[in-house]
Amino acid sequence: MSLSVGARPDLDVEPGRAGRLLEFPRRYPLVAVTLAVGAVVVGLLVAGQPGPAQWLGSGWALVVAARVAWGMVGDIVAGHWGVDLLAVTAISSTVAVGEYLASLVVVLMLTGGQALEDYAANRARKELNALLERAPVLAHRRHPDGSVEDVPVEEVRPGDELLVRPAEVVPVDGCLVGAEADFDESSITGESLPVTRRAGEPVLSGVLNEQQAVVLRATATAADSQYSQIVAMVREAAESRAPVVRLADRYAVPFTAFALLVAGLAWWYHGDPVVFAEVLVVATPCPLLIAAPVAFLGGMSRAARNGVIIKNAGTLEQLAAVRTVAFDKTGTITYGRPELLAVHARPPFPEEELLRLTASAEQYSSHVLSASVREAALARGLVPAPAEEAHEEATHGVTATVEGRRVVVGKRAHVARSAPDVVEQALGPGELAVYVAVDGRFAGTLVMSDQVREDAAATMAELTALGVREILVLSGDARATVEHVAAALGITRVLPECLPEDKVRTVRSAPHRPVLMVGDGVNDAPVLAAADVGVAMGARGATAASESADVVILTEDLARTATAVRIGRRTMQVALQSIWLGIALSVALMLVAATGAIPAIFGALSQEVVDLLAILNALRALRGPRGER
User: Which domains does the chain have, with CATH numbers?
Assistant: First the structure.
């Protein structure tokens, strides 16, 4: 048990062993004093001075009991019924019956609970700490004359050229200058194989440069780079308080009442107050307060090892109970890299002119289709023209003035508002259409197709096996396109042609809860925030989606959705096992102690063993069942 149950763990990097020994008395003064008092008491007993030993041991125990009682009064006034009443009663009763050694053990258990919790928490958040420790501090800025200067990463500005030496962490987001190079992204994405980047390709902060020195051109400041956002999410995750810990208030009253009842009946039956004290020293359910947060930190650490950042401990509890999973289609179930299949231009617009104008407008859109349209135009040697003005209506389309012409691109309904003569495009299975109007006239369509991710079907099957009752697809695309994708994955419920508010309404009204929503784009932010658990997939940085989400998958791997649910279930299982293991052992010890068979000192030591067993069991959340990461 701890004097400050639920205190946020220290996120600083741990010092060396000698440093930790010197730091211990400062961080845990009550533990240090208790150990010192215990040593003096033992010395006095060895020297044949039981009287002073009893006065010293009893006096310090009562000082600690008074301190805890004062804090307990404040908690009760605030409406929190903790189990510290048992500890205070156990200390007072053992002192009253002369069992001062047992009272010192209870005091050590009480004051040392925070130290034990911190140690276990440090073990549990191993991967979370590893991410924090790798945060770059310096960058090697290269000047035009070729000289290199070491500067704090906070001073790096977009456009700066940075030298990254072998085995160094990339300090900020940038693009590669010069030859290709290999980077190790395993600490972020969980992918074990190096990734090759070529000149001009983006390189994200936090990844490890492999074997050769490379030059990057910074594209973001340190604060706006991917790794800074990951560190912020990791800190939020490590500092969050597990909901199971808050449930301690629920367990406290019945457990305290049960313990006092057993102790009182034992005293009445034996007529000996010593038995009352012997029962209470084994009735301190520290596992309820310590094991749960350790298990939840372990679960979040395991998720981070798999490239999944779970922002708070409460999300793990929701993941464990998920019954409905909703997916956005484009960029989530599909790769989000649509290929241009055909350009259907209406007279008097030539196909190439239609594609060029469309790409010119789409360069001002954040939709995943926009990048594909621009790439298709460039592949045909068509250079998009700058727009005099442009604005986007999220999920609908974009309107721009290009070379004096008003170009409207997007869904049929959006384009029809400016071009009533729009004609619906016939589509094949899995195809989608981008409609275009120029100066109020329907100009034609671009037909595109986006491939379903290879692991999509396996992910749906695993989610079903994990107990998910309903899987649905929410998309702004046409019904035929969405139904084709859903049918290929065995999904029977689809909601096509959805606006953001339609998605939010659907998620909020889902009958089987909790609801998990998976998306990848800015347009998904409202529905991710509305879901019980919002998952942003492939969110590398401070996008609206990753900020709104409860879970961020750092790589574009749909299977990590099932991984997150599986880790949530495993973590909750281990946390509850640890809680009930501790409570069951405490109850068993109470019943045995009620017979008078366990002396107070041995009972107090036995309770310490129970605490250790519960915490060791909670650390199982760090790993999955055999064969899983």
Answer: 17-128+235-300+568-622 (no CATH), 138-221 (2.70.150.10), 308-334+452-558 (3.40.50.1000), 339-449 (3.40.1110.10)
